[in-house]
From TrEMBL:
Protein name as annotated: Thiamine-phosphate synthase
Positions that bind Mg(2+): D71, D90
Organism: Amorphus orientalis
GO molecular function, one term: thiamine-phosphate diphosphorylase activity
E.C. number: 2.5.1.3
Lineage: Bacteria, Pseudomonadati, Pseudomonadota, Alphaproteobacteria, Hyphomicrobiales
Catalytic activity field: 2-[(2R,5Z)-2-carboxy-4-methylthiazol-5(2H)-ylidene]ethyl phosphate + 4-amino-2-methyl-5-(diphosphooxymethyl)pyrimidine + 2 H(+) = thiamine phosphate + CO2 + diphosphate; 2-(2-carboxy-4-methylthiazol-5-yl)ethyl phosphate + 4-amino-2-methyl-5-(diphosphooxymethyl)pyrimidine + 2 H(+) = thiamine phosphate + CO2 + diphosphate; 4-methyl-5-(2-phosphooxyethyl)-thiazole + 4-amino-2-methyl-5-(diphosphooxymethyl)pyrimidine + H(+) = thiamine phosphate + diphosphate
Keywords of this entry: Magnesium, Metal-binding, Thiamine biosynthesis, Transferase
Swiss-Prot/TrEMBL cofactor(s): Mg(2+)
Signal peptide range: none
InterPro entries the UniProt entry points to: Aldolase_TIM, ThiamineP_synth_sf, ThiamineP_synth_TenI, TMP_synthase
Free-text comment on the cofactor: Binds 1 Mg(2+) ion per subunit.
Listed GO biological process terms: thiamine biosynthetic process; thiamine diphosphate biosynthetic process
Length: 211
């Protein structure tokens, strides 16, 4: 079993920013209430990604906030990260589980009913669903699920869910009504003038919506 983790406010790093900026934003956002961090940089090679993962691990040391690496199980392992987040075309979640072991946090992106039905609860600790709304951060994110689509997706699997894509302080409370355990954001934090205050407001909005 992985260590307990809290999906309430999950910061996914912005691949358009250098690691120095990502480190500063992450430190501030965690101080403001971020509960999970994912290093996501699809274009980075292994060595660069490992260095960035180690830099983020140092920022998160002692905070209790887990570090998840996007796509790269090998980098997650080499960095001693807490887990990995895989997509539908990455290595399967079961392979991630076999490689990283029972204590690792394994996240999977799923959206269609077929993908939801195929989720193996023994291999997957949480599912990322989205995009909730239009996003410019990921070009191939697909059509927005909105409230009804997110609510429907939540009913298709017993695995814990987090919503991603186009989530802001304005719609975070709406997302909370769908059944997801948390919100995952890139630009709402990476582009905030004060990431600490923005994290605080995002979390407050989600928790208000959750009731
Ligand atoms: N996966 C689905 S949408 C997305 C990812 C990584 C990007 C979300 O970025 P933003 O800026 O929070 O809309
Ligand atoms: Mg991926």
């Amino acid at each position: 079993m992985p260590v307990p983790f809290d999906l309430t406010l999950y910061f996914v790093t912005d691949h358009r920013q250098p690691i120095e900026q990502t480190v500063d934003i992450t430190r501030a956002a965690v101080a403001g209430g971020v509960t999970m961090v994912q290093l996501r940089k699809p274009e980075a090679h292994g060595r660069q990604l490992l260095e960035e993962a180690l830099a983020l691990k140092a920022v998160l040391a002692g905070t209790g906030v887990p570090l998840i690496v996007n796509d790269r199980i090998d980098v997650a392992h080499a960095a001693g990260a807490d887990g990995v987040h895989v997509g539908q075309s990455d290595l399967p979640a079961a392979a991630a589980r076999a490689i990283l072991g029972p204590d690792a946090i394994i996240g999977l992106s799923s959206v269609t009913p077929e993908e939801m039905a195929a989720i193996d609860p023994a291999a997957v600790d949480y599912v990322g669903i989205g995009p909730f709304a239009a996003t410019t951060t990921k070009g191939d994110a697909g059509d927005a699920l909105a409230i009804e689509g997110t609510r429907h997706a939540c009913r298709l699997s017993p695995v814990r869910m987090v919503a991603i894509g186009g989530i802001t302080e304005t719609n975070a409370a709406d997302v909370a009504t769908t059944g997801v355990e948390g919100i995952s954001v890139v630009s709402a934090l990476s582009e905030a003038s004060d990431p600490r205050a923005a994290a605080h407001r995002l979390r407050a909005a989600f928790e208000t919506g959750r009731g």
